[in-house]
Design brief:
By secondary structure, this protein is mostly helical. The protein is globular and about 55 Å long. Helix 4 packs across helix 5. The two termini are about 20 Å apart.
Length: about 290
C-alpha cells in the first residue's frame, strides 16, 4: 500500500499544524503517553497487544482471496483501493494535512495495525472533498463541506488552546480525545464564533461519516470484520438464520481492553441524547468493547 507524505510547510503560530513550541505529543501537565499506551491491552495480563497485519476476529480471512469469483470490473475497482491511494489535492493549505491526519487518527485509530496495513483514511476523505462528493443533500444551515472542514479545524484548534494552551497536533492522544469529545458532546468550550457558522453536531457527524466511508470501503477493513466482499456474480446461498456461507471464515474472538491513552472504552450518546433510548428501555450498551483503537 502506498502513502502520500505530508510535504506542506508548517502554518503560522496558532494555526492548525503550527510548529510546536515543545516536543510533539506533549500534553502540558501530563506525562507524554508511551507508544504502547495507544495499544489495546490483554485484560488478563495488562500487556499491550502488539500491532498486527490483520486485527479483528477473523485472522485467517482475506477478502481478496475471493477475487477469482468477481467479474473484471468489480475486481479492478477493489484492487485499485489497495494498489492506488489517492493523492492529496484538497488539504493543501500549509499544516492542514498534518492537522487532518491528527484528527482522523483519533476518530478511527489504527494503532493495532502494523504500518504496512493501515488504511490511508485522510487520502480518501481528501478525494471526497476535492471531488465535491456529497450524499445527495446538504443541511440548509451548513456551509459547503469544504468550508465546513476549514472552519471546523479552526474550532478544534481553538478548543485545544483553550483547554491545554497548545495546538491540537502538539497534544498527546488522550488530550486530543478530550478535545474531540467536546464536539461529540456538542458542547465546545471555545471557538463560539466558529460554531455560530456551523452546527457542532452536524460537523461531528460529517467527520464520522467520512471516516467510516473511507475505512470500511477498503478490503483491509473487510478482513477485520469478516465481510466476504462483493457477492457479484456468485451471489449468496444462505439467506436465513444468519448462517455463514461455505466460503466464509469462522469468528475467533479474543479478549481486549481499550488503550490507556484513549477514551474508546466509554459510551455516551452524541450530545447526551440517545435516540434509541426508548427502544432500549433506558439501557445503554455495555461499556468496554464498542470503542475503536
Amino acid at each position: 500500500m502506498t502513502t502520500t507524505a505530508d510535504t506542506t510547510a508548517p502554518g503560522p503560530a496558532g494555526a492548525p499544524g503550527a510548529t510546536p513550541s515543545a516536543a510533539p505529543g506533549v500534553d502540558p501537565g501530563l506525562a507524554p503517553a508511551a507508544e504502547t499506551d495507544r495499544l489495546p491491552r490483554d485484560p488478563r495480563t495488562g500487556d499491550p497487544i502488539p500491532p498486527r497485519a490483520q486485527p479483528g476476529y477473523y485472522p485467517d480471512w482475506h477478502a481478496l482471496d475471493q477475487q477469482a469469483f468477481w467479474d473484471a470490473a468489480t475486481r479492478d475497482v477493489v484492487r485499485d483501493r489497495v494498489d492506488h491511494v489517492p493523492p492529496i489535492r484538497f488539504f493543501r493549505v500549509p499544516g492542514e494535512l498534518a492537522f487532518a491526519r491528527a484528527v482522523f487518527d483519533r476518530l478511527l485509530p489504527q494503532d493495532d495495525r502494523d504500518p504496512e496495513h493501515r488504511i490511508s483514511i485522510v487520502n480518501y476523505v481528501d478525494e471526497i472533498l476535492y471531488e465535491r462528493r456529497i450524499p445527495g443533500y446538504r443541511f440548509v444551515h451548513m456551509p459547503p463541506d469544504q468550508e465546513v472542514y476549514r472552519l471546523g479545524f479552526q474550532g478544534i484548534e481553538a478548543i485545544a488552546r483553550h483547554l491545554y494552551q497548545r495546538g491540537f497536533v502538539e497534544l498527546d492522544s488522550l488530550a486530543q480525545d478530550h478535545v474531540l469529545k467536546t464536539l461529540h458532546d456538542t458542547n465546545p468550550p471555545a471557538g463560539q464564533e466558529i460554531w455560530q457558522q456551523l452546527s457542532v453536531r452536524h460537523f461531528w457527524l460529517l467527520l464520522l461519516d467520512h471516516a467510516i466511508e473511507a475505512y470500511y470501503a477498503h478490503p483491509y477493513a473487510w478482513d477485520e470484520i469478516g465481510f466476504g466482499g462483493p457477492a457479484y456474480p456468485r451471489g449468496y446461498m444462505r439467506l436465513l438464520r444468519g448462517e455463514p456461507e461455505p466460503w466464509e471464515s469462522a469468528e475467533r474472538r479474543y479478549a481486549w481492553d481499550p488503550p490507556p491513552a484513549s477514551l474508546s472504552g466509554g459510551f455516551t450518546p452524541i450530545g447526551g441524547e440517545n435516540p434509541l433510548d426508548e427502544q432500549l428501555h433506558g439501557k445503554v450498551p455495555t461499556p468496554g468493547q464498542q470503542g475503536t483503537h
